[in-house]
Backbone:
């Protein structure tokens, strides 16, 4: 038997494709290497010949894809001598920033919209020792404040405007290609700031890149880390499909939205920070943006849990909600291979989950006959 090297986080795993040196002290919680699960029961409901995979990013150490970017951003901040990091957040970034700052023994300041982040995320940031600034405004207002304060204060911004974030997040595309043995035809993602859709495109482009073929334009994304000397790993890139919540859909309106509203608080964002790059991804990949209602989002969240045992937060479920609609209308043709990213764990937002299933609780006395009769009544169907 040959002994396998233990997986110790995405920077170690992909170090030749990331901006680190042999001397870099890596700040890691073992992020990345998440499962890509083929859905069984939902495609059957759609009555279409289609392969749908869920990239279960909720299984990262703090429960969301943000860990991929945060390991890079905090590693580089520490390398550059930072003693504190700062971010604005709808919740998941703050949880990741707090955790990686704790690991690095530096301070994290997180600016969150008062009363509008899910309980799980708040609990994480609080216990991980972040200094939490609740502001009476939304994410976009917080983001503006963070940009301004970082100019005058010795703190490093770890929002996705920090380019190291996207470098870390691109590794999700590498993992998908390695698992499937190919690039998918369509990659469906929730879009808030549009950092993640941009990061995936960087990753897909890097693996399709070669100085010899017709996707050399992609090398512009590789930030000098593209291994030009190698053959491309795959010959195609997916169409990137970004879904936004109806009340927070600047990419559908074509302009910024000032008062975004949605049950999916993670993507309650009206002024996306990666606006230009997301439009570029849209154009280069031949994909599209679309929007889903809060009802569609919650229905997809429930379907994933009920039919596949996959518990994700509402924002994540929009990738499946949108994909199902596009499969039904034929916009995504039969025979396609689709990846939907489930960006955050369902445990992040227990309140929303409980609210939409509250009616299903059966309350009885602690007596055998009552338990038995409840089982018999529910056994059929
Ligand atoms: C679960 O945590 O912006 O389009 O401050 O938490 O890259 O912004 C979260 C975003 C999707 C959108 N799914 O990704 C934050 C934050 C979940 C998220 C997104 C977020 P981007």
Residues:
């Amino acid at each position: 038997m040959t002994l396998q090297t233990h997986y110790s986080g995405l920077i170690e795993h992909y170090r030749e494709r990331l901006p680190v040196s042999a001397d870099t002290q890596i700040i890691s919680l073992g992020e990345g290497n998440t499962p890509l699960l083929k859905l069984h029961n939902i495609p059957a409901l759609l009555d279409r010949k289609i392969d749908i995979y869920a990239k279960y990013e909720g299984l990262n150490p703090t429960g969301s894809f943000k860990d991929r970017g945060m390991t890079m951003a905090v590693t580089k901040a520490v390398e550059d001598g930072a003693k504190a990091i700062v971010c604005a957040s709808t919740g998941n970034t703050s949880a990741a920033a707090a955790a990686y700052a704790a690991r690095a023994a530096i301070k994290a300041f997180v600016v969150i919209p008062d009363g509008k982040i899910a309980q799980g995320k708040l609990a994480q940031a609080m216990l991980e020792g972040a200094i939490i600034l609740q502001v009476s405004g939304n994410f976009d207002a917080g983001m503006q404040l963070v940009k301004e304060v970082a100019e005058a204060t010795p703190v490093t911004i770890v929002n996705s405007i920090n380019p190291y974030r996207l470098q870390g997040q691109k590794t999700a595309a590498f993992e998908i290609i390695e698992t499937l043995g190919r690039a998918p035809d369509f990659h469906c993602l929730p879009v808030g700031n549009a950092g993640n859709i941009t990061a995936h495109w960087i990753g897909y482009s890097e693996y399709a890149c070669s100085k010899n073929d017709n996707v050399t334009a992609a090398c512009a994304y590789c930030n000098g880390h593209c291994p030009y000397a190698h053959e491309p790993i795959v010959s195609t890139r997916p169409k990137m499909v970004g879904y936004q919540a109806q009340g927070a859909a600047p990419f559908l309106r074509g302009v910024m939205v000032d008062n975004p509203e949605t049950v999916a608080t993670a993507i309650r964002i009206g002024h996306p920070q990666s606006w230009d790059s997301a439009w570029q991804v849209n154009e280069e990949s031949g994909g599209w943006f679309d929007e889903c209602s809060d009802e569609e989002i919650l229905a997809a969240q429930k379907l994933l849990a009920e039919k596949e045992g996959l518990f994700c937060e509402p924002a994540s479920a929009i990738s499946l909600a949108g994909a199902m609609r596009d499969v039904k209308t034929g916009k995504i043709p039969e025979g396609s291979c689709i990846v939907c990213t489930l960006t955050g764990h369902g445990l992040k937002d227990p309140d929303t989950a409980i609210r939409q299933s509250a009616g299903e609780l059966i309350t009885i006395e602690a007596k055998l006959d009552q338990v038995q009769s409840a089982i018999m009544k529910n056994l059929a169907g």
The pocket of AN7 is lined by residues 64, 66, 89-93, 160, 190-196, 266-267, 313, 315-316, 343-344 (CB under 6 Å). The chain has 15 helices and ten strands. The longest strand covers residues 107-113.
